Protein 1
Amino acid sequence: MQKYNNSGKTKGINAYESGFDFIRVRFDDGAQYLYTYSSTGSKHIEKMKILASRGDGLDRYINQHVADRYESKEK
């Protein structure tokens, strides 16, 4: 996983991992969520990858657009 830079300095996401058709997000509490093309849609996954690489706005985007549309949750 890559460290999420979090340029906004808000708590929430601390790491992410992305592949062709997915993004996995790890939150500060240790919970990891896997979002895939099939569970979330390719448009959302690609937007999430951009936000993750910028280190800004991913937590807000998840809350507003895809919150519970994850493939799986790991703790």
Protein 2
Amino acid sequence: MGQLILLRHGQSVWNQENKFTGWIDIALSANGIEEAISAGEKLASVAIDQVFCSSLKRALDTAKIALKAAHQEHCPIVQDAALNERNYGDLQGLNKAEMAQKYGPEQIQIWRRSYDIRPPGGESLKDTCERVLPYYHQAIEPLLKARKTVLVVAHGNSLRALIKELDHISDSEIASVEIPTGVPLFYGDKR
């Protein structure tokens, strides 16, 4: 197998403002740009063959900034909505702390972290897995089997879906998995 590198996009403006972002196309914050540069510096010694990212600009911008910092800006990038963040439905654009006051912190935690409970009008992590994993098996895994190094730049929940599969994490244990912004996670052979 080749090497798979997972990278959650740098902090977005709405991450900074503590808002549910989901499928809303929000830009990186100044800190998020710095995180993407730092991620790229960590990837400078790795020859990346292919990049996959979501269709949202915070992931694409992170990929482009990281590749430039890694001196690999000519690496091909494929965007696909299958790697988009989980859709938070009616919560998108709302402040997480205000919603915790309205619905209670326990309910917000259930909506954010449970495996199969959807927020109002949105997707559960299970739903996210059902779109991310087929794409991974069809588009990304064949490159890994061909011993390629693949960088996936996506979101907290789309990457949690992949990590759940790769690390064989149970439905209940996945609730406690946190993925930091702008920090590359390495899987597979290191060349």
Protein 3
Amino acid sequence: MFTGLVTDVGTVRKAEHRNGLTLFEVESGFLLDQVALGASILHNGVCLTVVDKGQGERGAWFAVEAVPETLDKTVLGAWNEGTKVNLEQSLKLGDELGGHFVFGHVDGVGEIVSITPEGQSYRITIRPPAAIAKYFATKGSAAINGVSLTVADALPNGDFQVAVIPHTWEVTTLSELQPGSRVNLEIDMLARYVARMIGADAPEGQ
């Protein structure tokens, strides 16, 4: 379980394909003793398990593995050496929930349509896959590359917009986005359950 509040931006230092898996080594500012083998860490919105670790120049480096399904259904398939990654360690009992509940299960990959400065902030327009567009509601929550954001506007064509404050822009990888960039999207779990309860997401024939 995560909050969508990024605690560090890591850097991929190795991407190695082997035995049907892809191993990513990520260097971060986390202290080595803060990263446990078997721990879950959110990487651009994808929950991955730590399988190895060591000490790097910035701090700890750790290794995670991704299966082909994960690479196909998220932006991780485009990662290579030097890619910047939003990181968040999993919640512990007693931690403050400052964002919203994020599960690390990507629902689809969206495309950045536009990025418009609004004073010191930025308004980003995102085009989600058509199958999940109905879940993004004005004032609802969404995770964009693992960052918890409030939907500023849900547009009639299915696109939605988020407003990003300067702090979030500076301490995440959102500032590296540009029109055409692909981003991991996770639907607010509340929206998913509401849709199911009212029948909007019920299997055909029921």
